[in-house]
């Protein structure tokens, strides 16, 4: 394995590992809870009770709570392959349905059920929704098996994570006595009336309410038992009541593959920041052996501090890369995954494939979208295929194309990621003059938005080459990104709409703006108004046509209004796609300099097929999502929806001045970096923009930074006596300007 610098069209080796051998590693699918030190064989009588909202039932024996494996059991609640609730107390330690109390009818999908089992030393009683549905006489105490007590899974571990429930759990308790029928009924009634129906701590051996802060689940009983969460789960989702909190589990969730490190590459000292890759070398001679070995895992090496003389920072949209990572499943889930049993939602339904852990489509239960996405698992979205050097790929390949073009133009840059922007690793102290966002930069944390705002307020400029910008809000912590795509589940309560990590409103930034009276959605001057990808990409993409050819950023005198451009590296294919953003007068960019207006320099048209064009559906969203805010939401603009045709304009190229003193150029198509090396018009526009924004070169005197047009004070290539003369002239100009201000 080697580390390579993607330098133009070439790969330059930076470092490599010693040869090593890889072997197949197991995957530990599924999320569930394990309670340390709890065994039901310690009690002569006991009760296990709580709430479950099942989203998948049947075709596998799954455990709700207790100590149960495929072949062994102490006691617990489970669900049969037919979807029927059941309880077991085994005196022999064997798991057998002959020891179980089994309900006559299956549970109902997508409905809260209160489920309880009581054992008084002789009789086992199963309750579903406070109704006694089955009894079983037991001769003797529960056997000691050494099985762990789990909520949501059978006891096989590690490796075999079958027997896991799908759905939301809430308010689970273990009592050291058998509750009476009236007491079980009272527990159910409390759950329907109280956000947190916690028993007295001294009365129970375990109580989990799941209303804890992100990252913790506390046993509030007097025992204060330690809990472990496998595969993260989905904390802080809607519980039994609309404003209560539950915990969601899935048989196919996988946030962390838990694989050990196989090799390590040491980055040589003084390695410059940039776009690198890790390439696998195979065979006894440790060389590239097949075209598939041309696949390179993209690596971003950021600087410890801004590189001297470098005025441009690029931000790789890694949040989007992880959001689209369905691994180990697929998006959409259309194939079986080894190790995950494909199951229907309920017996007799269509078989569904599991493993989709992206922010799109649904998981194996056919109902739920994953909220948590981990980096500690393979991600093909981070791969760049060096075999096809000009092919279209919307993910990491766009970052490579941008870096290659910057190298080609002799424009030095430092490379960062979304997480660096989130953590404040990109200085806003003037070290960088320009930040470039690009590609499909769809997922933004609040910290990213604030850092961007601060950078612009302090005079920084933006060049944005992308579409579907700043669409979804995320929260980041550790190696996990959280999303809350609750628009499809408006019937759920407030917890589902709020991030567990930071307790802020999640969902689309357009709705957050409505609810919180902000305007971040239009930060870059264009907005994602629902223009969806066309098919087949990229042959259906459109062209740009020049507008306002007198603007100083154009090659004045060389372009006519109406000229088409945007050629991709593929003959006859254009670049206005994969998703496109547009300037809408209803959405003025925040921070727009007073007295100025955004300038549309080009617009996309001549698309290969009609495309939908509307802002995200806002009907009823105000009343359903903003009730918890003291101020009413902004009025929804009425002119944002409508039919679209192949001639519909979208994917605008927009320029505006920021009140902080900087500028913004937005090229509103997610595939736009693809055309930088192949289309001379777009290349010249972006080059001139960066020359001005970063180095105060070739700016318009009335719109550029406050230095003479063409001064070149910060051109990185100025050397010798001519460079010194220009520098002296610049200082003279600035000195005279300062004196005039003082006078």
Write the layout of secondary structure elements.
Layout: E1 2-7, E2 10-16, E3 32-35, E4 46-56, E5 62-68, E6 73-79, E7 85-89, E8 100-102, E9 113-119, E10 123-128, E11 131-137, E12 149-151, E13 166-175, H1 181-193, E14 206-208, E15 227-230, E16 234-238, E17 245-249, E18 274-279, E19 295-301, E20 312-316, H2 318-323, E21 372-374, E22 383-385, H3 396-409, E23 414-417, H4 418-423, E24 434-439, E25 443-445, H5 446-457, E26 461-466, E27 472-477, E28 480-483, E29 507-508, H6 509-516, E30 527-528, E31 543-546, E32 564-565, E33 581-582, E34 599-605, E35 613-614, H7 621-625, E36 641-642, E37 650-657, E38 663-667, H8 680-695, H9 720-742
Parallel strand pairs: 20-23, 20-24, 24-26, 25-27, 26-38
Antiparallel strand pairs: 1-2, 1-18, 3-12, 3-15, 4-9, 4-13, 5-6, 5-12, 6-7, 7-8, 9-10, 10-11, 13-14, 13-17, 16-17, 18-19, 19-22, 21-28, 27-28, 27-29, 30-33, 31-32, 31-34, 34-37, 35-36, 37-38
Q: Please indicate the percent range of residues in DSSP E strands (runs of 2 or more).
A: 25-35%
Distance, first to last CA: 65 Å
Number of helices: 9
Query: What's the CATH H-level homologous superfamily of the largest domain?
Result: Class I glutamine amidotransferase (GATase) domain
What is the averaged pLDDT score?
A: 85
CATH fold-level topology of the largest domain: Rossmann fold
Shape: elongated
Q: Given the helix and strand composition, which structural class is it?
A: alpha+beta
The main sheet comes to: 9 strands, mixed
Computed Rg: 30 Å
The CATH class assignment of the largest domain is: Alpha Beta
Q: What oligomeric state is this?
A: single chain
Note poorly predicted spans.
289-293, 613-625, 627-647, 705-743
CATH architecture of the largest domain: 3-Layer(aba) Sandwich
The strands making up the biggest β-sheet line up spatially as: 23-20-24-26-38-37-34-31-32
Helix content estimate: 10-25%
